[in-house]
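Quick one:
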Amino acid sequence: MTKSIRYNWYIKEQHKIFPIKQVYARIYIKSKKSIIIVSKDWNNRQIPWWKPENWENTFETLQREIFEETSLKLNFNSKDIPILFWYYQIQENLEKYLQLRYFIEIEDIDENILKPNEKLDIDCIKYVKLINIDEISMIIPRLSNSEADL
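Output:
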């Protein structure tokens, strides 16, 4: 059985002992009022998310995976740093871990550069797309019922 509890803004001290096993990113393109969505099967669309490699910190995971899945090369600095807007403590059977949710705002991009940039396999991203923020609940219906996935 899986159980999750959502927390806002910063990771509480007592949760820092748990491994981070999932990192989500809501990538907002300000000039286009759009967010980036991806799909592995052409049908199910989602906000990008990843599993960190053992040697990476969270920002390294974000940079690597955003590049692999979208071809966007992001260099986080003090101005463009990802913002943790909430996290989940997940419990699956006896295992506990964290799932982090980040917001990344980009001023503008050329939509034509968005494409998967990872080796083709059964579990890879098949397409990347910008979706207007007002249309997201039509593309990903579960978002109309819960802000948790956005």
